[in-house]
Amino acid sequence: MNETLRIQQAHRSIRDYKADPVSDEMLDQIIAAAQRAPTSMNAQEISLVVVRDAAKRAKIAELSGGQPWIIKAPVFITIVIDFHKTDLGVRKAGKTQIIHESMEGFGVAATDAGIVLGMLITAAESLGLGIVPIGSIRRNPQGMIDLLGLPPLTFPLVSLCIGHIEKDAPQKPRMDIKTFRHDERYDASGYAAAIDAYDTTLVHFWNEVACSEGFSWSEALASRFPTIYFSQVKPVAAMQGLLNDK
């Protein structure tokens, strides 16, 4: 196994960070790696907003529902869907952009944002830094838009905490890989048994790490998925011009 695969397979989310800053050199290397991520049609419709200011990070933590690791991590990067940038290019060529009004456009941008996120994670972890992705910026997307000064045709999709590790975290077990990898044809025949086994495994893991609020996988999903837990995503995206109606 090479070093890149070792780093990727050892991934775990870190929520305890030292106060030490991440150096400019490290941060520049991480962002330069992420910029090389592929995007559909080379659209490059993703932008990053890097926040190091402590007061801004505290505000973001508040907007995100009160997550203390956002305050502790010295670097907070928000991955932004940026059809404002592409619109400038389309207008320069004398055309009118409409891709931002479609499900295809949002889906493509979300896919590309995920690729960028993965590149950021691998780059940061390769330097010995800890990370944790933050999806809860979508709890109050308008607040994030205002705080980061985002123009129309943009949307803050997901963020990433980066910092030096204060306290390491155990690696959370995953479900049987057969529920993830399908060869030639999708096969869900083993899902029920795999879910039963994983529920047991995950509860055991929570008990081992002394997490009194840990639930089985099924119970955790059942506490969230019966609701639209970030209900402002669609209306705020629409106000930003990302209509998703085509």
Helices, strands, pairings?
Blueprint lengths: L2 H7 L14 H12 L10 E6 L2 H10 L4 H5 L2 E8 H10 L10 H24 L3 E5 L6 H8 L5 E10 L27 H18 L8 H8 L8 H7 L7
Antiparallel strand pairs: 1-2, 2-4, 3-4
Helix pairs in contact: 2-6
Keyword list:
four-stranded antiparallel sheet, NADH Oxidase, alpha+beta, single chain, 246 residues
Task: List how many beta strands DSSP finds.
Answer: 4
Separation of termini?
45 Å
- Tell me, rounded to a whole number, the average pLDDT: 97
The CATH architecture comes to 3-Layer(aba) Sandwich
CATH superfamily: NADH Oxidase
User: Structural class of the helix and strand makeup?
Assistant: alpha+beta
By DSSP (H or I, 4+ residues per run), the number of helices equals: 10
Share of helix among residues? Answer: 40-55%
**Major sheet: arrangement of strands:** 1-2-4-3
Q: Tell me the Rg in angstroms.
A: 19 Å
CATH topology: NADH Oxidase
Largest sheet: 4 strands, antiparallel
**Overall geometric form:** globular
How many discrete domains?
1
Low-confidence stretches: none
- CATH class division: Alpha Beta
- Taken as a percent bin, the fraction of beta residues is 5-15%
